[in-house]
Amino acid sequence: MKQFGLFFRKEMLEMGRSYRWLWVPLVFLMLGVMQPIVTRFMPEILKAAGNMPKGMTIMMEMPSGAEVLAQTLGQYNAIGILILVLSLMTMISGERQSGVSQMIFSKPVSFVSYAAAKWMSMISLITASFGLGYAGAWYYTVQMIGPVDTAAAVKAALFYLLWMWFAGSLTLLFSSLMNPAAGIAFVSLGAALLLSLAYGMLPRYMAWSPGALPQISAKVLLQGSGGTGTMGALLITILFMIIFFVGAVYMTQRKRARF
Amino acid sequence: MTQPLLQVKGLTKRFKDRTVVRDVAFSIAEGSCAALLGPNGAGKTTTISMLAGLLQPTSGSIQLLDQSKPVTDRRMFIGYLPQMPVFYPWMTGREFLRYAAELAGLAGRDAVLKTDEWLENVGLQHAASRRIGGYSGGMKQRLGLAQALIHRPKLLILDEPVSALDPAGRKDVLNLLQRIRLETTVLFSTHVLHDAEEICDEILMIREGEIALQGKLDQIRREYSEPVIRIEVGGDPVSLKWMASISSKAFVRQAEITGNRARLTVTDVEKASFELMADAVSHQVAFRKFESGQSTLEDLFLKVVQA
Amino acid sequence: MNTDIPWDLIAPLIVIWLILAVVGLISLSRTESTRGPKWLWVVIIVCGNILGSVLYFVVGRKDVS
């Protein structure tokens, strides 16, 4: 427990000194704020682009607040996950690759504490970044588009947050499994993408898949409820996160250093 | 003082189908200083990594004894310095040392005190607040020594501690080791015999993953030293012709002759000296150098390595 | 130009971009080694909008990863 605190403090310090605590939340905030702004000014943008034939009036219905917020989540699913994977990919592999791990693991340290601290800091970074971005998106949506049901917005955010935690867990697992940063990013991103694509194509069979979470989150916003698979997807995701964690502990212990 | 601290039996490491360390066995007595000596690629780093608990042996046992009882987690009693110590470049020297101290189990206040003490011991007190990213190789090595020793380990394990350093850095680290070895049992690997002789009293020569020779340094010196004569003559044809003929003398057990230089292992130095000189005079050979004595550890090391 | 652009809502975006660029440049001036020449990263951060700064933070530096 004492070692967990030590490791966690070190991770926080590193994330601060490498400016990750600054740029990841800011990029998320940017992503969140963009969607409502772009939606609000879409008619003007189209007009300025001048591709419309003269005389054609732009008939565009302004979407509802809930719709814009759901679109924002769509943004996070593409670029948000990419940013997360890129900022987390070397968390375990980097220390093994550089060689610091040799000095760390020759001390009487617990591998569980080590991995748990990585996990906890991953969760912290994701929660803060997504929280900030989502809050920004929400505020801008209410200001520029229209009101959103508070309970639905919070519930949707929590489902989506779980999806991001899942993606982060996946990245850390691959970071414990392999060394090349590009490989980790590719595989983690690919797996997350595949899961959410698979749900899009086979919603019936993948109803409990973690890949259903983004859709569930959107449904909560638009329809007020996530549908029948919600509970299953929730439990399966948490179960997988636990499995990933155990796997990462095991792999970190097995591949203590690079030889 | 002769209690064993570390006992290694049948230590073997295979990577895929290549056996890098084969059936290595030795023990290190408390208070001694042992050098794991061998050419590059002999399996030194692999052996050391297994001892430090970074690499799982394929088979064999490693036991560290505390009050004659084997311990469960030997990392508690070991200080380890890897070949090329790497740190977090974004940490300062003081931060890293304190981090290492706390990881090794020192509590808050104790960790702070020990950190300052060791920064001074290794002469880094003035660079303590600078980021490690800007440290030189020698400074990193000294910081590495400090982090290995901060929890007062019973055994200090070093992997090629001076090989990559410039002469000044090398001297610093060797001096530090001289001091440390008075209080701590030390095991270090090196491919330079001279470094081993300078601080150690025991050597383990390793070749192609196997122990080729081990024992106390002075004992080995006594046991394996042979009478040797080294000759260097002028480059004229007469001298060279004479050189080519001397290996057939009765007292020469072994001769290595390269051009105008010869190294002869002989049965009796004095007799050989007289005969060689007399012979040389009668043949009008121009000596440049004539040296008689005992073979050195260097000779033995080369012999073991090249065998 | 459309006059009803609410600058008070768009200003924060510009501020975010500025912070990222300035912090990126500060970090660049302090860092020991970068992947590729430093001047190139200055260009990327200044002209590359948010993406430039992000690119720098992700792959630009060698010593912190």
TrEMBL record, chain A:
<keyword id="KW-1133">Transmembrane helix</keyword>
<keyword id="KW-0812">Transmembrane</keyword>
<keyword id="KW-0472">Membrane</keyword>
<feature type="transmembrane region" description="Helical">
    <location>
        <begin position="181"/>
        <end position="202"/>
    </location>
</feature>
<feature type="transmembrane region" description="Helical">
    <location>
        <begin position="231"/>
        <end position="251"/>
    </location>
</feature>
<feature type="transmembrane region" description="Helical">
    <location>
        <begin position="152"/>
        <end position="174"/>
    </location>
</feature>
<protein>
    <submittedName>
        <fullName>ABC transporter permease</fullName>
    </submittedName>
</protein>
<dbReference type="Pfam" id="PF12679">
    <property type="entry name" value="ABC2_membrane_2"/>
</dbReference>
<feature type="transmembrane region" description="Helical">
    <location>
        <begin position="21"/>
        <end position="38"/>
    </location>
</feature>
<feature type="transmembrane region" description="Helical">
    <location>
        <begin position="76"/>
        <end position="94"/>
    </location>
</feature>
<feature type="transmembrane region" description="Helical">
    <location>
        <begin position="115"/>
        <end position="140"/>
    </location>
</feature>
From TrEMBL, chain B:
<keyword id="KW-0813">Transport</keyword>
<dbReference type="InterPro" id="IPR025302">
    <property type="entry name" value="DrrA1/2-like_C"/>
</dbReference>
<keyword id="KW-0067">ATP-binding</keyword>
<dbReference type="GO" id="GO:0016887">
    <property type="term" value="F:ATP hydrolysis activity"/>
</dbReference>
<protein>
    <submittedName>
        <fullName>ABC transporter ATP-binding protein</fullName>
    </submittedName>
</protein>
<comment type="similarity">
    <text>Belongs to the ABC transporter superfamily.</text>
</comment>
<dbReference type="Pfam" id="PF00005">
    <property type="entry name" value="ABC_tran"/>
</dbReference>
<dbReference type="InterPro" id="IPR017871">
    <property type="entry name" value="ABC_transporter-like_CS"/>
</dbReference>
<dbReference type="InterPro" id="IPR003439">
    <property type="entry name" value="ABC_transporter-like_ATP-bd"/>
</dbReference>
<dbReference type="GO" id="GO:0005524">
    <property type="term" value="F:ATP binding"/>
</dbReference>
<feature type="domain" description="ABC transporter">
    <location>
        <begin position="6"/>
        <end position="233"/>
    </location>
</feature>
<dbReference type="Pfam" id="PF13732">
    <property type="entry name" value="DrrA1-3_C"/>
</dbReference>
<dbReference type="InterPro" id="IPR003593">
    <property type="entry name" value="AAA+_ATPase"/>
</dbReference>
<keyword id="KW-0547">Nucleotide-binding</keyword>
<dbReference type="InterPro" id="IPR027417">
    <property type="entry name" value="P-loop_NTPase"/>
</dbReference>
TrEMBL record, chain C:
<feature type="domain" description="Cardiolipin synthase N-terminal">
    <location>
        <begin position="19"/>
        <end position="61"/>
    </location>
</feature>
<dbReference type="Pfam" id="PF13396">
    <property type="entry name" value="PLDc_N"/>
</dbReference>
<keyword id="KW-1003">Cell membrane</keyword>
<dbReference type="InterPro" id="IPR027379">
    <property type="entry name" value="CLS_N"/>
</dbReference>
<feature type="transmembrane region" description="Helical">
    <location>
        <begin position="6"/>
        <end position="27"/>
    </location>
</feature>
<keyword id="KW-1133">Transmembrane helix</keyword>
<keyword id="KW-0472">Membrane</keyword>
<feature type="transmembrane region" description="Helical">
    <location>
        <begin position="39"/>
        <end position="59"/>
    </location>
</feature>
<protein>
    <submittedName>
        <fullName>PLD nuclease N-terminal domain-containing protein</fullName>
    </submittedName>
</protein>
<dbReference type="GO" id="GO:0005886">
    <property type="term" value="C:plasma membrane"/>
</dbReference>
<keyword id="KW-0812">Transmembrane</keyword>
